[in-house]
TrEMBL record:
<dbReference type="InterPro" id="IPR006139">
    <property type="entry name" value="D-isomer_2_OHA_DH_cat_dom"/>
</dbReference>
<dbReference type="GO" id="GO:0051287">
    <property type="term" value="F:NAD binding"/>
</dbReference>
<feature type="domain" description="D-isomer specific 2-hydroxyacid dehydrogenase NAD-binding">
    <location>
        <begin position="122"/>
        <end position="294"/>
    </location>
</feature>
<comment type="similarity">
    <text>Belongs to the D-isomer specific 2-hydroxyacid dehydrogenase family.</text>
</comment>
<protein>
    <submittedName>
        <fullName>D-isomer specific 2-hydroxyacid dehydrogenase</fullName>
    </submittedName>
</protein>
<feature type="domain" description="D-isomer specific 2-hydroxyacid dehydrogenase catalytic">
    <location>
        <begin position="20"/>
        <end position="325"/>
    </location>
</feature>
<dbReference type="Pfam" id="PF00389">
    <property type="entry name" value="2-Hacid_dh"/>
</dbReference>
<keyword id="KW-0520">NAD</keyword>
<dbReference type="InterPro" id="IPR006140">
    <property type="entry name" value="D-isomer_DH_NAD-bd"/>
</dbReference>
<dbReference type="GO" id="GO:0016618">
    <property type="term" value="F:hydroxypyruvate reductase [NAD(P)H] activity"/>
</dbReference>
<dbReference type="InterPro" id="IPR029753">
    <property type="entry name" value="D-isomer_DH_CS"/>
</dbReference>
<dbReference type="GO" id="GO:0005829">
    <property type="term" value="C:cytosol"/>
</dbReference>
<dbReference type="InterPro" id="IPR036291">
    <property type="entry name" value="NAD(P)-bd_dom_sf"/>
</dbReference>
<dbReference type="GO" id="GO:0030267">
    <property type="term" value="F:glyoxylate reductase (NADPH) activity"/>
</dbReference>
<dbReference type="InterPro" id="IPR050223">
    <property type="entry name" value="D-isomer_2-hydroxyacid_DH"/>
</dbReference>
<dbReference type="InterPro" id="IPR029752">
    <property type="entry name" value="D-isomer_DH_CS1"/>
</dbReference>
<dbReference type="Pfam" id="PF02826">
    <property type="entry name" value="2-Hacid_dh_C"/>
</dbReference>
């Protein structure tokens, strides 16, 4: 155990002291705070990180190293057995390639659920109440501007696509607004976890929801799961809320559906090619847009950093992760 080193990529904001304290159970703490992929790869290849057993991949590390694909995994020290990633989504890590190399990966589910669900509700209510137009008018000194009435959430059918921790937290909150909630998921949940929501097929969800909230992970099978054929099946005037990942939905098809009136409005925290946003969305004056801030609260960011450290500690001391990604759990 004494020969197990740890590497931090990126910087910590809330748990710097806790990271330093990891020296009690590691042989060495390496830190790569910033840099470029080529530089990082060359340091790996020179052996600078040899002996690293577990890695902390911070929330901003992807902008430093780029995706953890085959090329990068090949360059990592052979001693590396654990990658502890800060984020609920880990589409920028090639999980099958990690598994093949005997590397276990953890993410930070649960910690993000409430904050992300809060933003889903914020976007949904903002869309229902046409808040963008009102926000703009009041700041331009036009008071209500060209005001038109919004809609109540009460008695609307909320469809949740992906009923994991975030989806359930959305359902929990939406209940308080008197919405009728239905969901589709790979598997129906036990009744105790359904939050009173009704399980329906994917087609049924598309055909009967007044508001559709996307709460599923991005992977090859969910990329563009919402595209033209799915919009065609939806009720006219549906509201779409996406706090999951941009590429789950075909953004150009959404713009077409907004133009045709098929989709009345949308509340979006994520986009296909962040930070780029389709000009058609910027032009649609009733669409509510946020720059991917779902988990951006002090409390949640601290909880996420701490959970990554807890995983790192468990990896080094006990050879196991607390929140290993489900694809690796057989
Ligand atoms: C990472 O978290 C810190 C706060 O904890 C925040 O300031 C920063 O914007 C986050 N970076 C990304 C890429 O999410
Ligand atoms: C999320 O909020 C619920 C209350 O709505 C609380 O019981 C739960 O502990 C919170 N989860 C996390 C991970 O903070
Ligand atoms: C105000 O909004 C209505 C309905 O959306 C629209 O028909 C009308 O042209 C708008 N008026 C102005 C001055 O923008
Ligand atoms: C929302 O605002 C847009 C842009 O001003 C307007 O066209 C639309 O009629 C409004 N709808 C409601 C229900 O407020």
């Amino acid at each position: 155990m004494t020969q197990r080193a740890a590497l931090l990529i990126g910087v910590l904001t809330h748990t710097e002291k806790e990271w330093q304290e990891c020296d009690k159970f590691t042989s060495k703490l390496h830190h790569y705070p910033e840099g470029l992929r080529e530089d990082f790869l060359s340091k790996c290849r020179k052996g600078d990180f040899d002996g690293v057993y577990a890695m902390y991949r911070s929330n901003d590390s992807n902008s430093i190293t780029g995706n953890f694909n085959e090329e990068l995994l090949d360059a990592l020290p052979k001693s590396l057995k654990f990658i502890c990633h800060n984020g609920a989504g880990y589409d920028n890590i090639d999980i099958p390639a990690c598994t093949k190399r005997g590397i276990s990966v953890s993410s930070t589910p649960i910690a993000v659920n409430n904050a992300t669900a809060d933003v889903a509700l914020l976007l949904m209510l903002g869309a229902l109440r046409n808040v963008t137009q009102a926000f703009q008018a009041v700041r331009q000194g036009k008071w209500r501007g060209n005001f038109s009435l919004g809609h109540d959430p009460k008695d609307k059918v909320l469809g949740i696509l992906g009923m994991g921790g975030i989806g359930s937290a959305v359902a929990h909150r939406a209940k308080a607004f008197g919405m009728k909630i239905q969901y589709h998921n790979r598997h129906q949940l036990p009744a105790s976890e359904e939050e009173g929501a009704k399980y329906v097929s994917f087609d049924e969800l598309l055909k009967t929801s007044d508001v559709l909230s996307l709460n599923l992970a991005l992977n090859p099978s969910t990329r563009h799961i919402i595209a033209k054929p799915q919009f065609d099946q939806m009720k006219d005037g549906i509201i779409i809320v996406n706090t999951a990942r941009g590429p789950i939905m075909d953004e150009a098809a959404l713009v077409d559906a907004l133009k045709s009136g098929k989709v009345w409005t949308a509340g979006l925290d994520v986009f296909e090619e962040e930070p780029k946003i389709h000009p058609g969305l910027l032009e649609a004056e009733n669409v509510v847009l946020l720059p991917h801030i779902g988990t951006a609260t002090v409390e949640t960011q601290r909880d996420m950093e701490q959970l990554v450290l807890d995983n790192l500690k468990s990896a080094i001391k006990e050879d196991k992760l607390i929140t290993q990604v489900p694809e690796q759990k057989k």
